[in-house]
Amino acid sequence: MLTILGFAMIATFLVLIMMKKMSPIAALVLIPALFCVFVGKGAKLGDYVIEGVTSLAPTAAMLMFAIVYFGVMIDVGLFDPIVRGILKFCKADPMRIVVGTAVLAAIVSLDGDGSTTFMITVSAMYPLYKRLKMSLVVMTGVAAMANGVMNTLPWGGPTARAATALKLDASDIFVPMIPALAVGLLGVFVLSYVLGMRERKRLGVLTLGEVLVEEKVEETETVLVGAGSGKSGTGKAAVTTGGSGSGTDAEDDEAGDAERFQVLDPDRPTLRPKLYWFNALLTVTLLTCMIMEWLPIPVLFLLGAALALTVNFPHIPDQKARLAAHADNVLNVSGMVFAAAVFTGVLQGTGMVDHMARWMVDVIPDGMGPHMALVTGVLSLPLTYFMSNDGFYFGVLPVLAEAGAAHGVTPLEMARASLVGQPLHMSSPLVPAVYVLVGMAKVEFGDHTRFVVKWAALTCLVILGAGILFGII
Q1: Which helix (H) or strand (E) holds 200?
Q2: Exposure winner among 176, 257, 279, 285, fewest CB in 10 A?
Q3: Tens digits of residue pLDDT in 39-84
Q4: pTM of the model
Q5: Residue of 463, 436, 469 lying closest to 123 (CA atoms)
Q6: Per 3-state DSSP, what percentage of the chain is helix, strand, and coil (rounded to 5)?
Q7: At what angle do helices 432-441 and 136-150 cross, to 10 degrees?
Q8: What CA–CA distance (Å, rounded) separates 467 from 457?
Q9: What's the CA angle centered on 78, arms 74 and 82, to 5 degrees?
Q10: What is the pLDDT of residues 200-252, one digit of tens each?
C-alpha cells in the first residue's frame, strides 16, 4: 500500500506542476501533507517536516549565501570577461549560443557544485537568450544535462556516495567510467547543436548590428540578473536569410558590433575594476576550499559573502542595497528548498521510499541476475529522479549490489552503472540546485520538466550504451 501511495504522491505532484495547476512550492507542501494523512500518519506530520527541514537546512543556507556571493561578483564585474568571451564566440547565432551554454555549464561544473554552475551559467547566458527571443527552457535544459554528466566527478557527490555505500575507492569507480562519460558529454554537445539549429531555424540567423539597430528603435526592458541595469530590445530583431555575414569585412563588422553589444551594462555603478583581481582570487580560493573540503560549503559561502560585501561595498547602505537586489532570488530558492524538505520528509518518514525501493528490486526477474549492472543502470534513471541521491546510493544500491554479487556481477560494475542516471537526476524536483536554475532563468519548473526529461533520459541511455560498448559496465 505504501508503495502505491508513494508513486501516486510523486505522480500527482508532477502532473499538477506540469499542468500548472499548482505552484511548485504549494505542491511540495500540500500534496505530501495530504498523502501523509492518507497513510494514517497525519499526527506525525510535524516530526517528518522538522526532520526534513533539519536535513536540508545546511543546503538552504549554502544556497542563500551562494546566491548573495555570486550576485555580488556579477555586480562588481567578475564575470564580464567570461560573458564577452562567450559573446565573441556566439555572436548572435542561436546555434552557437546554445552550444556555448553547454560548454560553459560543463566547464563551470568542474567545481562540483550544481548551484554554483547554474548561477554562473544563467548569469552569463540569460541576457543573450532574452535579447534574441530564444527559448529559455533550452538554456535550462542544456545546462542541467551538461551539469548532470559532470556531476559524476569524484567530488561531485554521487561517485563518493557509491564508493561509501559499497566500500570501494572512488577513483576505481570513476576513472574507468571516463570514456563513457565523455561520450555522454559529447552527446550533450551534439544535442545542444541540434537544439541550437532548431532555434536558428525558428528565429533566423541574426547579426549583432541588426540587434543593435532594433534595440535603438524598440522599447527596452531590463534583463540583467543581479545588477538590474542591463537593457534589452523587446521587438523582434531583423532576420538575415543569407547567414551572419561572410568574408573579412563582415567578420570585422561583427567583431566591432560585439564590442558594443553589451549584455552586462559596462557603466553600472556597482563595478569595481580596481578590485577585479581580489575578487578573482577570492573566488578561486573559495572554490579550492570547496573542492578540498577544508570547511563545510555553507560556512565557506557565508564567509565569502560577508568578505565580498565588506571589501567591495564598505558603506553599510551599499551593502543593504546589494542584499536587497538579490533578496528575490534568495527568497525564491530558499523557500523552494524548505518546501522540498516537506516532500522528502514525508517520503522518508512514512517509509514510502523504502517500500518503493524494495518493490523495484522484487520485480526484477531472476533471469536478469547476470545482467544486474545493466538493470541498475536502467533503474538509476527513475530512482535517482524520484528520490534523493542519499536514498538511492545508501538505500537501494547496496540491495542491488547484493543481488548482482549472487550472479557474479562485481560491486565496481554496479557502482559505475549507478552513475548513469545523473543527467536526469539534476532536473529532479528533489534537487535544490534545479530551483536555482529555473528561478534565475525565470522559467516555470513544469515547463523545464516537460522539455528536459526526454532529452536527459536519452543522454543517460547514451552513457549506458557507451559503458556497455567499452566493457565498463
Answers
A1: helix 170-203
A2: 285
A3: 888 889 999 889 888 877 887 787 788 778 888 887 898 878 876 7
A4: 0.67
A5: 436
A6: 75, 0, 20
A7: 150
A8: 15
A9: 100
A10: 988 876 655 555 445 444 434 434 444 433 333 333 333 333 333 334 444 44
